[in-house]
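Bench notes, afternoon.
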Amino acid sequence: MPIFALAVAIVGCKFDKPVVERLEISVPGLAILIDRKGNGNFKQSSTGKSGRFLLSADKWDALRDRTEPFRLSPDTIPSSKILEHLMHGSRCDGPYATDNGGISFHWIGPSLDQYYDVDYGCDRERYKTRNDELRSILKSLPVPEPDRLP
């Protein structure tokens, strides 16, 4: 009987997402940082433009929820492996087009230090839905458009 009670307790539990203290988003020529209170800032390297913004609690929760599937992806990179990833570049196992840009996310919290990095040129047809969602997440933020690649 105790095993049944434990199973019922586990099924009834709501598993909380880890606390995200800060979310960093990088795209070509644009770095964005947002803390869990919705305080954000950006820096556009090509123009030197920088700015601040504030997301409401609802908007921060929506951003966290929209990025959560990517944080849980098997393609997420732990912080201990990010240097290796940057040194060797992204692996693409399909058609590849150069100069398409990309996006990276870095989730930081008390028990959280994960990266997710996407090159939009990797197998664009197969990853179209994912790439469209990532672009939509960026467009939902009050920041300038990322730089266009040559």
